[in-house]
């Protein structure tokens, strides 16, 4: 594989974990999104056509910058940022295959998938004290119950939050 493809794959996987994106959201980014990304913000359109604005940490910005530096294809505002080997839009299946290769090379379980990076994003925020409602917004979930299941919130943590916040608890 061409070296730029490794930079591309690293950038996509970094976006999935660093911003909690779905593969479809990462691969739908266009050239016009780069200015906001460089400024540390990213707007994506998720399920149901709902747009959400996310912070883009320095590691995400740097991974995308390095990919773009190495990418042999020019970029215009309406074209996808992430390209396949021949310059077309990158297929989600290629990212899934990359993750499968990494699983094999690193001895990771079958559950280590691109979507698991999104799950890890949410779980890590929650375990570090992130607010469940804020995590819901970052993930673009319409329902808080989806976020609770998604982030594997344990009953003890929910009960503790209830007791500390409810005036009658």
Summary of the model, kept short:
This protein has 169 residues and is mostly helical. It has helices at residues 3-19, 23-27, 34-38, 58-70, 92-106, 114-127, 132-139, 144-150, 155-165, and strands at residues 41-45, 51-55. Helix 1 runs parallel beside helix 6 and helix 7 (132-139) crosses helix 8.
Secondary structure blueprint with pairings:
Blueprint: H1 3-19, H2 23-27, H3 34-38, E1 41-45, E2 51-55, H4 58-70, H5 92-106, H6 114-127, H7 132-139, H8 144-150, H9 155-165
Antiparallel strand pairs: 1-2
Helix pairs in contact: 1-4, 1-6, 7-8
Explain this structure:
- With 169 residues, this protein is mainly α.
- Helix content is 56%, strand content 6%.
- It has 9 helices and 2 strands; from the N terminus they run H-H-H-E-E-H-H-H-H-H-H.
- It has helices at residues 3-19, 23-27, 34-38, 58-70, 92-106, 114-127, 132-139, 144-150, 155-165; strands spanning 41-45, 51-55.
- The protein has a two-stranded antiparallel sheet.
- Helix 7 (132-139) packs across helix 8 (144-150).
- The chain starts with a helix and ends with a helix.
Shape: globular
Main pleated-sheet profile: 2 strands, antiparallel
Question: What is the first-to-last residue Cα distance?
Answer: 59 Å
From the alpha-carbon coordinates, what is the Rg to the nearest angstrom? 18 Å
Number of helices: 9
Determine the mean pLDDT: 90
How much helix, percentage-wise, in residues? Answer: 55-70%
Strand order of the largest sheet: 1-2
Strand portion: 5-15%
- Low-pLDDT parts are none
Which sequence of SSEs, written as H and E, runs from N to C? HHHEEHHHHHH
**Main structural class:** mainly alpha
State the total count of DSSP E strands. 2
């Amino acid at each position: 594989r061409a070296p730029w493809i490794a930079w591309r794959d690293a950038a996509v996987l970094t976006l999935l974990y660093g911003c909690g994106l779905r593969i479809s959201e990462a691969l739908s980014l266009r050239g016009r999104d780069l200015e906001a990304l460089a400024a540390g913000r990213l707007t994506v359109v998720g399920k149901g056509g709902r747009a959400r604005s996310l912070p883009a940490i320095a590691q995400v910005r740097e991974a995308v910058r390095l990919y773009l530096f190495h990418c042999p294809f020019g970029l215009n505002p309406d074209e996808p940022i992430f390209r396949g080997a021949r310059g077309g839009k990158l297929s989600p299946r290629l990212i899934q295959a990359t993750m499968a290769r990494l699983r094999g090379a690193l001895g990771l379980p079958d559950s280590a998938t691109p979507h698991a990076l999104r799950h890890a994003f949410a779980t890590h925020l929650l375990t570090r004290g992130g607010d469940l409602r804020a995590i819901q917004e970052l993930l673009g979930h319409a329902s808080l119950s989806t976020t609770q299941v998604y982030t594997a919130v344990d009953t003890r943590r929910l009960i503790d939050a209830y007791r500390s916040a409810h005036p009658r608890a």
